[in-house]
Amino acid sequence: MSSASTPSPAARARVLAHRPLVRSLQRAYSAERAASLAYIGHAASLRDPAAKARIKAIEQDEWDHRRHVLGILQHYGIPVSRRFEIQYYWIGQVIAASCHVIGWFMPYFFAGKLESGNVCEYFVMMRHFRSLGIREHDAVLYEMGMKEKEHEIYFLAQVEQSRLLPWFEKVFAWGRARSRNDVDLERKYALEDGPLYCPRQGGGSAR
Ligand SMILES: [Fe+2]
Ligand SMILES: [Fe+2]
Q: What residue ranges define each of the domains in the chain, with the CATH number in brackets?
């Protein structure tokens, strides 16, 4: 979903020279597959058909994200990181396997916590691109950030009534009262203001 127009050599050079942006795009590409693989395992560990279907839909969202991020990587000629691909492939597989043995609560809880952290990745990328005068990926990055927030909210709703949540929230700093981002789906910032999210993460100015 990246723009069809070819970037100017100057824009391409600016992006390639922005190490934090290049690394975060490479990492996101690989981490999205880790998420998809983990959700394959999570869905397989569930019996309830409705819950299984919802996790399968989230898995598909992550494959879509990986495809969108690949579009941006290719747009600038940024190579996929072999190291991240291998590392995140195994992270995904280990999480997938663990879903069958760690009970019902933990796969939902840790998925929610991970999603909570992923939200900011895409708004920080928006901010990095803006700092280079590039706005053409705003829409897709904003949509991906919001989708991760929807995932976080879904996972939170699954564990919200659990007696384990207060303990896990205390230890792992995520739950009813604690999130790793400042997005509120009821009061979303406009696309234009997406880079104002997550002001303490990733550095860079919002404008
Ligand atoms: Fe994703
Ligand atoms: Fe997600």
A: 9-196 (1.20.1260)
Q: Decide: 112 and 155 in contact? Cβ < 8 Å.
A: yes
Cα–Cα distance between 190 and 188 in angstroms, integer?
Answer: 6
Residues with CB under 5 A from ligand 2 (ion): 115, 148, 151
Residues with CB under 5 A from ligand 1 (ion): 32, 62, 65
Distance 88 CA to ligand 1 centre (A): 13
Model's pTM, two decimal places? 0.93
List the chain pLDDT tens, one digit each, 207 residues: 444 578 999 999 999 999 999 999 999 999 999 999 999 999 999 999 999 999 999 999 999 999 999 999 999 999 999 999 999 999 999 999 999 999 999 999 999 999 999 999 999 999 999 999 999 999 999 999 999 999 999 999 999 999 999 999 999 999 999 999 999 999 999 999 999 999 988 866 555
Distance between Cα 61 and ligand 2 center (Å)? 7
